[in-house]
Design goal:
- This protein is of the alpha+beta class.
- The chain has one domain: Small protein B (Small Protein B, Chain: A, Beta Barrel), CATH 2.40.280.
- The chain contains four helices and seven strands; from the N terminus they run βαβαβββαββα.
- A seven-stranded antiparallel β-sheet has the order 1-6-7-2-5-4-3.
- A hairpin with a 2-residue loop joins strand 6 and strand 7.
- The longest helix has 23 residues.
- The protein is globular and about 60 Å long.
Length: about 150
């Protein structure tokens, strides 16, 4: 189960409450580009149109060995494959004040490419500072343990 892309910024900017797994509808060029490790989840989020969920702002560049491809958009909205119950639940969560749905990682499960989504609440500036302090303390402790 190789991981192709991780949204590190989401883990820093948001408090992750719940996670879900979803499939993606992709074309062949996009699959090859993802498998070569070129996809970026930075700044991506989930939107809802009619009875479907879409991942927006998800950047997949054109596969470098593909021939001439006309009208290819690297940041087009891609449909997520979720159950109706999951879609309605996530839509309700996204309409609650302060909550959003963000992708965390992109990986394979068998031969399918999956995206891990999280219901998230935005962190305040002081929460981020606290996270940085904890990370620094943890690093210092690990250095002292290695030395001593």
């Amino acid at each position: 189960m190789p991981v192709y892309s991780v949204n590190k910024k989401a883990k820093f900017d948001f408090e992750l409450l719940e996670t879900f797994e979803a499939g993606l509808i992709l074309n062949g060029i996009e699959v090859k580009s993802i498998r070569s490790g070129q996809a970026s989840l930075k700044g991506a989020f989930v939107t809802f149109h009619n009875e479907a969920a879409f991942i927006t702002n998800f950047h997949i560049p054109k596969y470098k060995f593909s021939g001439k491809v006309e009208n290819y958009e690297p940041e087009r909205s891609r449909k997520l494959l979720l159950n109706r119950k999951e879609i309605s639940y996530l839509r309700g969560k996204s309409q609650e004040k302060g909550l959003t749905i963000v992708p965390i990682s992109l990986y394979t499960k068998g031969r399918h490419i999956k995206v891990e989504l999280a219901v998230a609440r935005g962190k305040k500036k002081y929460d981020k500072r606290e996270a940085i302090k904890k990370k620094d303390l943890k690093r210092e402790l690990s250095h002292k343990i290695k030395e001593g």
